[in-house]
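Entry 14: structure prediction run for Inorganic polyphosphate kinase. Input pasted below.
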Amino acid sequence: MSLAPRAVLVHRTTEYEELLARHGTHGQAAFFLTSRGRSIEEVARRHERSRQALADVAAAVPLQWRQSRVERRDLDRFLFAPEDVVVVVGQDGLVANAAKYLSGQPVIGIDTDPGRNPGVLVRHRPADAAALLRAAVTPGGAADELTMVEAVADDTQRLLALNEIYLGPSGHQTARYRLGPDAADSPAEPQASSGVLVGTGTGATGWLRSVWQERRSPLTLPGPTDSRLLWFVREAWPSPVTGTSLVAGELGRGQGLRLTVESDRVVVFGDGMETDALELTWGQTVRLGISPTSLRLTV
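Run finished. Output tokens:
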């Protein structure tokens, strides 16, 4: 007998809760914000909207289903199951934060603050949750398959991201490495830069787009469901021993980028989650390309 679906509600601590944790009381938090020219009232209203949205979504979960909640900072320790339906209640970025820990489970994005969030990934309102939960477990239910990017190190460490993966120094230093296509006998160029960014069509609404626009790149940005990635080297430094000929490109399915570390330490993280990063040292190799796993975003 198969298990009933489990609705996993993903949320994050609100700004108001963070203020209370830091200052102890509402009054002290209000004084702190007032001293900096801000009012706590709008912060408190956003908190109430967020908590109410979470309560409304929880109430919409069918009675025969199981239910669980996970806060953003605990995602890397939460065990998602194949029968889960993941309901992200919050901002677009929270969908990306959760995506890297999933393996094909359907995801529903609920916007807690319409008008303030772009709504690219959190496309729905709390009132839609009941219908969306039913649709998520219906065979053939409508969903967008969003392309993801992966990094696989030579020690088997693996990292997924919905928007982009960054490889580079952990601070403001320069990373040294060799970069080239992940193909037999393909030449690799020694480089020194502030890092490499590899992004998807979903990421083309954020960091990837800003680099693409600043670079005035002739490459065409991919769409969220396109099987294409773009990559850019950030601030490559020309010198007698480092080059700048491989600073941008496109990766299709089956193509990859290979980077071999020539620094003491390089970090690899996805979607801004620096606390959950891979750490690579001198001589290690990491390969980047389109992940076989995509994000199933219920529409």
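Notes: DSSP finds six helices and 18 strands in the chain. Will compare against the previous run tomorrow.
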